Amino acid sequence: MKIRKFLPVLLLVGMFLASSAWAGNYPEFDAVGVDSANFFAKNNIAYKMVTDYFKAHPVDGKYSLEDLSNFNGSVNAIYAALPEKFSASAGTAFTDPCWGQFKSVLTTVQRDGSYNWWIVLQMQPESDIDLNIYDCVLKWQGSENGGLWGNAEQTGRWRAEWGKLYFSPCANPDLTVVAYPGPYAVASFTEKQYLDARKTPGLWKTTLDEVWYTSKAHWDESIVIALPETGYYNDRGSAGFQLVQGDIINVKIQVPTTNTADIYYGADSVVLKYIGMSNTFLIGVGQ
Predict the structure, then answer these.
(1) Structural domains of the chain in order of their starting residue, each with its CATH number
(2) pTM of the complete model
(3) What stretches of 173-283 adopt beta strand conformation (E)?
């Protein structure tokens, strides 16, 4: 009982002793290509605050962090093996029916499709990483019958002929998130590592390896990725390693053949958000 009584005090003392380590941290977001050009970054005040700050406070007085964030292997030899990119197996990108101002690839009802985003961390994270997924989920052929308005749908959801509404977990896309070592990775991080999600509420961990997630209409989904630590293990028992600037995050979404909706994803659909450490900026190539 005495230990429990003084535990809050000890934690508070520890927080004050560690306060100097809190200085020099910045909100940061990363996406495929030039971060400031991401459709959702341009149209959301929280993202714009980050972009505007780094434009007003250039790194070393000359680098605007969000404008010099293109880590494409074709223009940056460091990332030639794993360039920052988006790929999709289901077809060619066309104008997105929900958003209208960027292109996305459709996976139709009862068809499988895979999507991959390769994103370079531009700063060393000092927080968990929020994975935001912006997609478009419509009823079958909804884009041809009014689009979002009147055809909004949820993945895994379907209605029987007699009107009863059902939800089938296995009809939802599954999500995998893997980190790969970049040019400045910690020495022990030499192979890919599967990252964990923190379930909210509750904050219990689950490894992001082909786990189902559900999405609705044009609403974004947010998954909290637990920051891995060297010497600790993920939920399924694999070794974890600290992430630093230059490490690469691969987000993969696999749509199953049991899919019950038309689902659209594009290069701009995935954004990683976190708190980065000062003096760990990584400068890529602007467009």
Answers:
(1) 75-277 (2.60.120)
(2) 0.88
(3) 174-180, 193-194, 196-198, 205-207, 211-212, 221-225, 248-255, 262-265, 270-277
